Amino acid sequence: QVRLAESGGGLVQAGGSLRLSCTASGRSVSGKGMGWFRQAPGKEREFVAAISWTGGTTYYSDSVKGRFTISLVNAQNTVYLQMNSLKFEDTAVYYCSIRATHAASTIAGQYTYWGQGTQVTVSS
User: Distance between CA atoms of 33 and 79, rounded to whole angstroms?
Assistant: First the structure.
């Protein structure tokens, strides 16, 4: 079984920054694409960012492009999400996820395991 542990969430004022991290552990976690999704109260889970295992391919949702940066440290099986210029509408629980293959994907159904989530709250 694969486990994903997120951290780095918290309360921040609009315009501020946070850096989320997610470490994968368990069987055969190396060599997999990873991604970040978020879910706000009363809304569906939505794609945020994704990265291939090599780091050569990244995808971002239009709402975060230019503000968020995804990165991956292979040796630590850890994916990061640097969030700058945060807006009130970024408030959500953020989930990291891992695929069964090396490629990046924007589609939630193409991910195999999910973390428990970390809360990000942006005050107005």
Answer: 10
Q: Which two tokens stand for residue 15?
A: 């315009």
Summarised one tens digit per residue, pLDDT across range 28-74 is: 888 999 999 999 999 999 999 999 999 999 999 999 999 999 999 98
Checking 105-109 for CB contacts under 8 A at 24+ apart, the result is 105/33, 105/35, 105/50, 105/59, 106/35, 106/47, 106/50, 106/59, 106/61, 107/47, 108/37, 108/45, 108/47
CA distance 49 to 105: 9
